[in-house]
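User: Hey, quick favor. My workstation is busy. Could you predict this chain's structure for me?
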Amino acid sequence: MLDFDLAEMYGIENKNLKRQVRRNIERFEGDDFMFEITKDELLRCQIGTLNIGRGKHFKYMPLAFTELGVAMLSSVLNSESAIDTNRKIMRLFVATRHLLLNPPVDEVQELKNEVKELKNYFEDVFSDYNDINEDTRTQIELINEALAKLEVKHAHVNRPRRRIGFIQSEEYIE
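Assistant: No problem, here it is.
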């Protein structure tokens, strides 16, 4: 967060915030607490545009505070409003980190993924079912062929036989 945003949130002037930070600079050593924005960085962002009017330009480059730097500001700024604002900012940092680590679930995308999984499952099941049907058809064809061979063989065995014994003519049968 930038110094002028924090000063506005704490309800103090930016120069007072910077003064307190500079008086307690040993608390902010290292880039993991705060750093000063360079002119090149300032020109690349929206706050780098010049505003018309007296006191609207940056005389000193703004300070950018990290999460640790904002936490350290609570020990530098001891007013009740500063402490209350600092609590809110720290809760905001925690909520932001939680949101980044656990992004919200896109229910539509989740449903799409579930439908896709179900579709793949059904395709696999029907593929297996068709394989079983092919195997079953092949087995039925083999059974039919075997039955046809048996029938042909049985047809030779069951043909009409000639009677054994004396042949009688039909006149005598009566």
